[in-house]
Amino acid sequence: GATMLASAVFGATAASALTVGFSQIGSESGWRAAETTVTKQEAERRGIDLKFADAQQKQENQIKALRSFIAQGVDAILLAPVVETGWESVLEEAKDAEIPVILLDRTVSASDDLYLTAVTSDLVHEGRVAGQWLVENVGDRACNIVELQGTTGSSPAIARKKGFEEAIAGHDNLKIIRSQTGDFTRTKGKEVMESFLKAENGGANICALYAHNDDMALGAIQAIKEAGLKPGEDILVVSIDAVPDIFKALDAGEANATVELTPNMAGPAFDALEAYLNDGVVPPKWIQTESKLYTQADDPMKVYEEKKNLGY
Ligand code: GZL
Question: Which residues form a coiled coil (predicted)?
Fold first, then answer.
């Protein structure tokens, strides 16, 4: 009858009328570019009007974007927080405006009543998986490790370091001899690796590289080759993200292992948001995405073909 028709029409209108503000960190890595592509596709699929703001890695730009979204009266906000701290006041403002905030791929140190849910992988587990691969593949030989950390103060940089160190603890032959941020970029990863090589006898003292993402590893692989060494052999290479280009390196024997991070955080985020706004279903504070280890044994070029058109 009329009621059914009205609710059907209203329901359809309500669902398609969602306006969501997305404060994205930037495009520091191939993985982040893919996350942006996928988020726009997921919004499109759902008829969500997505307001996109790129912060060029600056927290103050993210805070400005959130204030603008609040002023516009969006229905919800997606935030990929560049660093963990400094969010309390702007998240309080969103809460006062009754605008739910969903965190994507990174967390904040603020209390969890300031956001609806966080869609992230288990970042500590990723570090453990990377460390475990090295423990299993180095055996008892002495192995000096250099580490390229992610963006200083970001939850992935803190967590991935923690997990890796947990995995190698108790294996005294495995030692991190140098550790520095490469800010998740290829350029910086290459630069910092060049300095590690120079400082360590041209790389003769280095047995392995642990990079918090593939982009820094890919930059470092370039530096290792330019130093006349064989990445993947003279210096083992372990990283995280599983972007297409790391599979080319795995296939070429220039990298050894990567831990997959899905770029599709927005799918689960929008599902939780719609259930919350349309049916009042309160999501858990953490929606965890999976992490899968890939090595040279996993048909890298097949995986490359599967991933290469996903917007990296
Ligand atoms: C991790 C995510 C990281 C990626 C990097 O969840 O925040 O940020 O691993 C990106 O590639 O820069």
Answer: none
